[in-house]
Amino acid sequence: MLSVSDLHLSFGGIKALQGVSFEAAPGEITGVIGPNGAGKTSLFNAISGFYTPDRGRVAFDGRDITGLSPDRRAGLGMARTFQNIALFRGMTVLDNIKLGGHTRLSANVWQALAYFGPARREELAFRAEIEERVIDFLEIDHIRKAPITALPYGLQKRVELGRALAMQPKVLMLDEPVAGMNREETADMARFILDVQEEFGTTILLVEHDMGLVMDICAHIVVLNFGQQIAAGTPAEVARDDEVIEAYLGAAA
Amino acid sequence: MGQFLQFAINGLMSGAIYALIAVGIVSVFKATKVVNFAHGYVIMVGAYFYYTFAVLIPGAEWAPNWLAAWQPGWLVEMREGLPMFSPMGAVLDWVQNLPRIALGLAGAVLANAALGLVIERTLMRPLMGQSVFAMIMITVGLISILAGAVQLVWTADADFVPHIAPNTPVRFDVGETTIFLFGADIVNMVVALLIFAAIVAMVRFTKSGVAIRATAEDQSTAYSMGISVPKVFSRAWMLAAATGAVAGAILATRNGISPSLGLFGFSVLAIVLMGGLDSYVGVLIAALAVGVLEAMTQWQLGGDWAEIVPYVAVLIVILIRPHGLFGQKEVERI
Amino acid sequence: MITGNLKASYAADEQVFDNRNKRAFLYAALLGLAALAGFADDYVILVACQMGILLIAVVGVNVVTGYTGLISLGHAAFVAVGAYTVTIFHEAFAGAIPEGLRALIAIPVAMAVSALVGIIVGLPSLRVKGLYLAVATLSANFIVIFLIEQEVFAPWTGGMVGIDTPAPDFLGWTLDTKREMFVLIAALGVLTLLAVQNLFRTRVGRAFIAIRDRDYSAEIMGISLLRTKLTSFAISAALCGLSGALFAYFYARILPEQFELALSLELVAAMIVGGMGRTMGPVFGVAVIVMVPEVIKSIFGVATGGEAGVAQLLAPLQEIAFGLLIVLFLLFEPLGLNHMADRALRALNRWPFAR
Fold first, then answer.
1. In this prediction, does ipTM exceed 0.85?
2. Which of A155, A179, A197 is the last residue in one of the domains?
3. C228 to chain A: nearest residue by CA?
4. Per the omega criterion (within 30 degrees of 0), is the bond before C352 cis?
5. B2-320 CATH fold
6. Of A86, A90, A103, which is closest to C222 when you measure between CB atoms?
């Protein structure tokens, strides 16, 4: 579904990624792990199109998308969340989620200015859809009219997931979905991620520090260290890998 | 060729003054990340302060006579028998005006620095740490306030102020043609470039310069390293206003004093963006280039076309090089 | 007392006027406008027309600055383009198009030309953020006014001395009184507000706000920054063009100096005072901005007993007042009068049980 091959990325002299290659299998959850500064977020930014890699390619659904802008990639069916929540802070929860439908709705400027007619039909149908598939699904119906700034951190994370779900993506990229969450919130989020996979068959790629979560829900894991891919495989394989243990626990272990 | 040289030199001379105006915008931006849209109007107020201290106060009834026209015995003696419009006469005129010029410059610099401090304290400080958008919009509001206030206090009538240097004509030949310059213009240019250089040196080499640069890099880190960020802010504003006062005084000697002086700020804003906002060298080059370009336009197309040169130039530069000719592209962290 | 905002369908929830107090305000406002047209005296009509013309332009600025977050300090240029386009259109097609149709075509043409100029001026916004755009629009303002003033274009624009605009004629109905003009201005003003409100409850308008709030996040939603910013600019400039067209028809004579930076700043002031990024913001803002000179005049009338020298002070005082309004609102009520009105409305909904 989503494949990355031989990705190289550098900022000035800093080599953020050096030859990362993996494939996120359709309908599976793939995890990317690694110590701080390993290049996980850079990898995400390269995949979603914010950074142009120096070398290598990103392919989506069999198509080379290395040169596409982030909005074009989104149009193809890629959605993502950000490590430090990137919701639209001036809007309500509902409006944030509605933005996920941007590429799927089609009203043009004239229809929008007139509203009644195609734009209204489309908006109402979309509203009904997100109410069911996103708001009910993520159990956020009690806050749909709340402004983002009034929400606690955990709920903001969930709304961001909701906004990505409203895009009905083929690939969902989650950048540290449970960072900063307590045990209960983490369990909730894990449940939602598994539900998304099960219910919609979405391919999921996630970056996470919470080892327990990654080991529990991922089918496939890629390990980065200093921009290099040091291991890849099933959770069990990766957990046994010497290089991975060294990277996490230091050479002495 | 001679014509070309004449206009090129004229252009460089006005470019140097643009650079002096620009230094205020760049300094405030470096320290506070706020682009002061009202800088032209701060300068205009500086020009009116110069007018007040150099013309209005010496002209007042209670002011001592030597302030308005200093005429010691030796000056009167030297003047005897000089023909009209002689170079020596111009120098003597200047000496005679010296007291009020000095008072004017000192008064303008101090009063304008105080204005800068007041603006920073009352308008910028309350918004510190909040959106830069709001701070920029406040400077937009400041345009109207300063423009209105000047007309209220000093009326909209135009007037003249004394040159800061002897305005002797300077003539020399290049090949066939004679280049014709004025002493005051040359001194203006030198003063402008010296102040510009002094500020760049200050930011680069002194302790308060380091504080400004640190603040520009990262406000909260600078704060935690013991740099008083509010102090850096108010110093930057005072510095900008003080240099603006000198620029305003010079502009007033060239163009006469009137509320339309504020408009220079907008051409200089265009220049600053062309140069790249945070690059002193880039801004200096852009200022000189626009000065020359204006002079050339004046030569080829006539005087009024020169007034839109900076605006056309900035639009072209922004389209081709969005971060200015010498500005750095900021890498955005996502 | 309205106890809750309870709806039975999503359609009801998506309505703009979603409770009876809001609907009551709408009907009262429409009735008020009709009453003005019918019964107000000439001076009130004059002021109301000024407000209406300014309102449409401020709504335009609000689209690009308030909703899309791109600072513009040159929207007076688009007003100028609109005003001069209708005037030149009437002159150029005097023979070719029947009189009753001329204004009907001229107004959309003016909007289209303004939109086109807006797109050109908006081009820098694709590359860099707000600040550069502010300077680009400012520059455009100076350039447009400069060109209008040039001798070369004087045969069309009238140069520095200005040019006369004929009274518009809609299929035989000539709007040659201010009261008739008011009907046109009020109708278009209400229509503008409704259209913009509609815009922001669909994908098109939401994309604008998304760019304002967080541009990279907007990109990840599939919003093309390039196209969306230009769309915003085009709509905004078109509305200013409409305002300019009405301006020309209403004053029947236009001068380049009417569209200088001062007007751009006035538009920005009205937007900030009213409330950026709110549909009704411009209404409040324009009401305040247009009343300022009136208030200053009346204060002076009382203080000096109507001396002659006062007129000279009016312009600078008005300028200071605009500047102070911008500054004070940004410092103390950045959300503008609209926010104050919202609070009042909320209190009214809950009355008498809570405030």
1. yes
2. A155
3. A109
4. yes
5. ABC transporter involved in vitamin B12 uptake, BtuC (1.10.3470)
6. A103
